[in-house]
Amino acid sequence: MMATRVEEAERLPGRGERALRADRRSIWPFLGPAFIACVAYIDPGNFATNIAGGSKFGFTLVWVIVASNLMAMLIQTLSAKLGIATGQNLPEVCRERFSRRTSIGLWVQAEVIAMATDLAEFLGAAVGIKLLLGIPLFPAAVITGVITFAILGLQRFGFRPFEAVITAFVFVIGFCYLSELWLAHPPLGTVARHAVVPEFKGNESVLLAVGILGATVMPHVIYLHSALTQNRIVPANDDEARTLYRYTRLDVLLAMTIAGLINVSMLVIAATVFFGKGLHNVDSLEGAHRTLEPILGGASSVLFALALTASGLSSSTVGTLSGQIVMQGFLRRRIPLFVRRFVTMVPAFVVIGIGLDPSRTLVISQVVLSFGIPFALIPLVVFTSRRDVMGALVNRKQTVAAAAVVAALISGLNIFLLGQTLGLV
User: What mean pLDDT, rounded, does the chain reach?
Assistant: First the structure.
């Protein structure tokens, strides 16, 4: 398991809430888990869906990203809170509270979702390295595998170095997109309006909206965040648990705000550069990279490739850790992390070998992800609303209501998309 032993420097030193509040330096040991979780919200699947959405429908779907990010903040806060309150991750709680048959069923679907997740993330990293270095996709995929193995190996030196590397990747992605925004000069007033006005333009926009939702609210990271907080810092009493939870909410707010801004930037740049120039069919990563250069200059295409590479490498590594949490939590079984990394690379190499379009594969994988959300989200809402599970950190009534609305909305969108796909709607 990831961080089963807490370093002494990261423990709450048995002092009360007032002393913790007075110590300004105490904020730093609490930051980190949400930044690891947030890379799942800016992975290559987001690149693919946001570019497709922006190039085809302009700024129309900006509101979907805003709404999805607000949902993600709530969901990740609940997941982190479950780990703090119970000392267990969500799969472990499911295993203890559900029947064995139900737990196995949840594990099977979670593994399928994990495969779709890793396929998107690994392919994205490989495409990024291909664009950055100008090499074929297969050797780029090999390089991707080597780098992700190296990042996973950092855990032997403790979890802090791993957190630092992942956080650095997040800031690299943010810097790249901030720079591209500066080059693109988007109409900020139009962006602001579409951020708060819900709108669709035909069935394809609905498909992309659900894909964006699947790329933003990630099932595997719902499981992961509870594992990142379950033993990282151990509160000694209810007061310390509440204090730790407040710092955790700040961690989530900071990390998810950065991830949300990056997501909005992806779609806004595509809408400004592609849709605004009449290029409505730029729906592939390679096409976006190729088209950016003559419009915004060579620096923009390099920044795009660098951001995509950083996104794919970080999210693929985190996805591998999530898969380990899922198996160990539901089944009390584990395989070596490097074996899991090797096995989860196979589908990506198959896609490359048979010549499937990587960008289209990424978009479809995000739709698959969206169907896994309720199976993680509903148990999370149920458990965090039970006092016998959560104790002092049980959800308030308004939180239960908000979480129930989010779960119902996501599930309803998935049912609608399934009916549309089967021709029933």
Answer: 82
